[in-house]
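Structure first, sequence second, as always.
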């Protein structure tokens, strides 16, 4: 039977271990020393590195990469099940060597890098000896790549990069930046002269590339390949975000259900008020619809390719933003005044939902892609009536039975009575 929703017992054991490990090790690190897992401070590393080692010992490091590139080679479906746990904890992705933006950059390197580029950057990225950023969006436009201007010009044995980028996540702390130029994707060490990091925004950086010179071998992939590389990078990143969003939605849902059973109002526990029940029932349905959509997409990638799953990935992209917004809002609302504070994860989750609808491409662009791809499987109908115009279909059906209708008055009368359905 091909349609199977069960998890094989050996992998379930891994999932159980991950759940327990995140609860007992990763979350306390997150709460006691926020940001420690991302820090290069020796004391922070002394806390986080042993956790990374436990993940490696368990064979779970770099979950997104194939076996030949040093990962466990689980494929996307198993990765989705793991990310349903990791996405609940802020530091879990970095403790498991699967944090954005490095993952997408590593995927590009793995797919398009030369052996030398892989040796120089992929291995250190995988081992978290270095960190990276991805510089694509420009101040004058993000959704439309035809507006981008940053360009590399060849000068002897160097590329000279000139342009301005906006919202490069973690650009200020990255060792290398993948810079998307109109003519190619380039790897730029952050400390290269001419890389100017502006004062704000502080997390997602505004960067000027002022005649930045890099050697010729810092071009990744072909000179005209920037859009293809970007699609490869963003496609993978989007589905990973969607997987982690399932975890966030489940967390909001768990918080909502616990609260609904704990709080009294107007003589009963609030879970007994029908409008609260409606919020829970709607959230349960949306959580599971999102989860199945993400798992189906992951399955499609495993069984064909990321390219084949493009419509599904775009659907995940805008659906996860919407479901996160709806469910986190209901949970926040049911939490009452406490929900509006930063004393539970709900406020940050709700505030994060518009980010999900913008980062990695705005919802509108993905919806347009989905509509275009879906419509390519349809044809317009001929004449004024749609294919499902029932009187015309009935006429064709009656022609099929013409001999019977002509020879059997009872059946002819029966069929005539059916015509009454179309008089309204
Ligand atoms: C948290 C976060 C992290 C990010 N990290 C990175 C990063 O690391 N590197 C990087 O390069 N970029 C990054 N970005 C930038 C992101 O890729 C862009 O914000 C995104 O592509 C949208 O571009 P924009 O912000 O310029 O919005 P715009 O393109 O100006 O769009 C604004 C609005 O215009 C409307 N719109 C635009 N196009 C269409 C259309 N075709 N049809 C209908 N309506 C449309 C939509 O309402 C849209 O929300 C990040 C963004 C966020 C929020």
């Amino acid at each position: 039977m091909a349609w199977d929703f069960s998890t094989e017992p050996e992998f379930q054991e891994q999932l159980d271990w991950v759940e327990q490990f995140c609860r007992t090790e990763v979350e306390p690190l997150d709460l006691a020393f926020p940001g420690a897992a991302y820090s290069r401070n020796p004391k922070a590393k002394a806390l986080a590195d042993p956790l990374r080692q436990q993940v490696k010992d368990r064979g779970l490091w770099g979950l997104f990469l194939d076996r030949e590139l040093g990962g466990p080679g689980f494929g996307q479906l198993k990765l989705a099940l793991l990310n349903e746990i990791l996405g609940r904890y802020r530091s879990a992705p970095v403790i498991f060597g699967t944090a954005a933006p490095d993952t997408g950059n590593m995927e590009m390197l793995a797919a398009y890098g030369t052996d030398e580029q892989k040796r120089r950057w992929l291995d250190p990225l995988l081992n978290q000896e270095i960190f990276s950023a991805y510089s694509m969006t420009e101040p004058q436009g993000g959704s439309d790549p035809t507006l981008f201007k940053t360009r590399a010009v060849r000068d002897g044995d160097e590329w000279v990069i000139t342009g301005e980028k906006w919202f490069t996540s973690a650009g200020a702390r990255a060792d290398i930046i993948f810079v998307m130029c109109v003519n190619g994707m380039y790897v730029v060490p952050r400390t290269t002269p001419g890389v100017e990091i502006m004062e704000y925004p502080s997390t997602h950086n505004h960067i000027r590339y002022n005649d930045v010179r890099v050697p010729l071998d810092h071009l990744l992939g072909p000179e005209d390949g920037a859009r293809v590389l970007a699609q490869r990078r963003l496609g993978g990143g989007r589905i990973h975000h969607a997987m982690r969003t399932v975890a966030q939605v489940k967390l909001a849902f768990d918080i909502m259900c616990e609260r609904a059973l704990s709080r009294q109002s107007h003589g009963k526990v609030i879970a007994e008020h029908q409008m609260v029940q409606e919020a829970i029932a709607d959230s349960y349905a949306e959580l599971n619809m999102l989860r199945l959509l993400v798992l189906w997409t992951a399955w499609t990638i495993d069984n064909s390719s990321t390219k084949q799953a493009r419509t599904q990935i775009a659907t995940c992209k805008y659906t996860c933003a919407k479901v996160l917004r709806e469910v986190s809002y209901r949970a926040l609302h049911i939490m009452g005044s406490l929900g509006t504070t930063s004393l539970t994860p709900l406020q940050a989750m709700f505030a994060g939902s518009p980010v999900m609808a913008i980062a990695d491409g705005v919802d509108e662009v993905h919806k347009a892609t989905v509509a275009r791809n879906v419509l390519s499987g349809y044809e317009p109908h001929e004449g004024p009536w749609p294919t499902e115009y029932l009187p015309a279909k009935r006429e064709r059906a009656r022609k099929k039975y013409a001999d019977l209708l002509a020879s059997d008055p009872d059946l002819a009368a029966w069929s005539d009575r059916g015509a009454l359905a179309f008089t309204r």
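Margin note: The chain is about 50% helix and 15% strand.
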